[in-house]
Amino acid sequence: MIQRNNIIHLIILILSIVGMDGVKAQDASFSQNYASPLYLSPSFTGLTEGSRMSLHYRDQWPNIPGTYRTMAFSYDHYLADYNSGIGLQFYRDDSGGGLLVKQNVGLLYAYEIYVNEDIMIRPGLQFKLAQSFIDPNKGYTAKAYNPAGELIDLTALPVDRDKVNNFDAAASVMLYSNFYWGGVTIDHLVKSDEAFTDVTTDTNIKFTVFGGFKWVYKEGRRRMPDQSVSFAFNYRKQADFSQLDLGAYWMYNPLNWDCGIEVCPQKMPRDSGIRMQLLLFWVFILVTCGWGTHLT
Fold first, then answer.
1. 0.90 exceeded by the pTM?
2. Which residue segment(s) compose the domain that 108 sits in?
3. Torsion of CA 194, 109, 37, 133, to 10 degrees
4. d(CA 26, CA 18)
5. Residues 144-181: tens digit of each pLDDT
6. What percent of the chain is predicted at pLDDT more than 70?
7. Where are the beta strands (DSSP E) in 112-254?
8. Among 74, 178, 167, which residue's Cα sits nearest to residue 120?
């Protein structure tokens, strides 16, 4: 068993990476955070017994052509003999109907450390190959005047390359019990240039803090599971973008009521002095089959 001092050193090492700088960028986010657990944190890899698959697809503003489509697929498995979880994840984000596509495929690993009978710590890692594509024929910079004084459309976006390949990594740590959980995830640990021109544009580090607790208001009897309400939060920060999700999950088998609120304070460029804030409220009902429990 790993000593507690080593656990503390590991957590400090992961948190110390937060001080790294980068330029402005933003990853896609999902309202249903725990529907795609491996995207939230590598520490969730192999959290359930046996194997698990997850598929998350979002089509934003589907009636408008050339909008945003995001997909995340993952598979993970718990190795009981090694107190470990292994997983595979594929992520794809299509902006503008193929104008800009970002995708990656990665391997995940998490190790389960028993602090005592009730509390466990799960450090996790992810290593991934990332690709970015751009179709300059689907985007135009603006209109301009030609030498004859006529207003014309500019040609396709000027780029030096239409594909970028990079290696990336993420690290996380999570502490949890049967009634509460909390963790930290740091993504884009590898500094790499993802620009399509000769101007260097580094991927910005994403910092995520999540957690919550479960309140069992009625214990289950016989084969009936517990009836509970879980309260959760998820805070993300990447460059000047930050978002806070607050949610509540009511579990009454076979119904799982999921409602929450998202607060997105968005800063504009520093010299503009403008600050926007988006408030989103969502409700989700899930009907489950079979018996079992999960983190939330």
1. no
2. 4-21+30-287
3. 20
4. 16
5. 555 565 655 555 566 666 788 899 999 999 999 989 99
6. 64
7. 113-114, 120-134, 143-145, 151-153, 163-176, 180-187, 206-218, 227-238, 241-252
8. 178
Dihedral of the alpha carbons of 245, 250, 253, 255, in degrees to the nearest 10: -60
With respect to residue 141, please indicate whether it lies within any of the assigned structural domains: yes
- pLDDT category at 219 given cuts 50, 70, 90 is confident
- Residue scoring higher pLDDT (214 or 277): 214
CB 263 within 8 A of CB 234: no
* Residue type, position 29, single letter: S
Tell me if 296 is assigned to some domain.
no
What's 74's domain CATH number?
2.40.160
Interacting residues of 121 by C-beta distance below 8 A, sequence separation 6+: 7, 112, 113, 115, 173, 174, 175
Whether the upstream peptide bond of residue 225 has omega within 30° of 0, thus cis, is no
Instruction: Give the residue carrying structure tokens 């890899």.
Output: 45
H or E, element range at 109:
strand 100-111
| Digit-coded pLDDT (tens) for 14-42 | 443 333 333 344 788 777 778 789 999 99
Q: How far apart are alpha carbons 243 and 221 in whole angstroms?
A: 40
192 in a structural domain: yes
Assigned token pair, 72: 């995340």
- Tokens encoding 144: 């301009």
Sequence-separated (6 or more) residues with CB below 8 Å from residue 271: none
Task: Please count the helices (runs of H) and the strands (runs of E) in the chain.
Answer: 2, 15
The CB-side HSE value for 61 (13 A sphere, CA atoms) comes to 9
- What's the domain count of the chain? 1
Tokens of 91: 């992520």
For residue 292, tell me if it sits in a domain.
no
Look up residue 108 and give its amino acid. Answer: L
Q: What average pLDDT is seen over the chain?
A: 75
Residue 123: is the preceding peptide bond cis (ω within 30°)?
Answer: no
What pLDDT does residue 293 have?
36
